[in-house]
Amino acid sequence: MFFPAWCLGCGREGKYICDSCREKLPLISPPICVKCGRPLTENYTCPGCIEEPVVIDGIRAPFLFHGVIRQAIHELKYRNLRAIAPVLGGFLHNYLLVNPIPVDVLVPVPIHRKRRRERGFNQSSLIGFELSRRNGMPVVEDCLIRSINTPPQVRTTSASERRKNIADAFICANEKLKGRQVILIDDVSTSGATLNTCAGVLKASGAASVWGLTLALEI
After folding, report:
1. Which helix (H) or strand (E) covers residue 60, if one does?
2. Are the beta carbons of 137 and 106 closer than 8 angstroms?
3. How far apart are CA 199 and CA 105, in angstroms?
4. Which of 17, 50, 196, 214 is buried most, with the most CB atoms less than 10 Å from its CB?
5. What burial class does residue 19 get, using C-beta atoms within 10 Å of its C-beta: 0-12 exposed, 13-18 middle, 19+ buried?
6. Which tens digit of pLDDT belongs to each residue from 136-178?
7. CB-based contact 211:55 (threshold 8 Å)
């Protein structure tokens, strides 16, 4: 009553993303790259695939990173609008209903403990738990650890910089995911470098398969 939701797209009261603005969200439609999930060009070539040995089984997302979905993610990450996490988790749930991925467990991409103290939460965890609440898959947060506090990927200017930035940033703390089918949860995939690096760490520790699932892909 005192703090009503306002649509991030048009300002209409009632929902954070109203029905009208939902219809305008930048959906990713086939054909897509089997590796990075980006829409293929008219010549069926990928506009920006992972420029490194690909360890991850694939990356998928329902949206492109612009418009209202970009604003929603920014509101969650940088303006502490945690109340929008159920909406974003619902988007991922609806996507998986139509585009199933093998899964036993959900693993949010971790942020460093220093950044988590500063922000107060990990946005990928919030989204992951909202997805878990809908599909019943368990969330594991104490296996994949971000051990190095690297600069945010948005501050890097090239794919090679992003790979170098997070090359040794993650470790696997235990064998909880050995033999499991993992879906990594993140908000945005820019180059795929972070998800691919995480997948390499988890597979080296025995994970059977690792897919990446994000809300949006940046092109």
Report:
1. strand 58-60
2. yes
3. 14
4. 214
5. exposed
6. 999 999 999 999 887 665 554 555 666 666 878 999 999 999 9
7. no
Q: Report yes or no: 37 and 50 within 8 Å, Cβ to Cβ.
A: no
DSSP conformation letters of 16-37: SS-HHHHTTS-B--SSB-TTT-
Report yes or no: 84 and 215 within 8 Å, Cβ to Cβ: no
Two tokens, residue 192:
């795929």
Asked if 32 and 41 count as a contact pair (C-beta separation under 8 A), the reply is no
**19-217 under CATH 3.40.50.2020, yes or no:** yes
Strands (DSSP E) found in 138-179: 144-146, 170-172
Q: What is the tens place of the pLDDT at every residue in 9-29?
A: 999 999 999 999 999 999 999
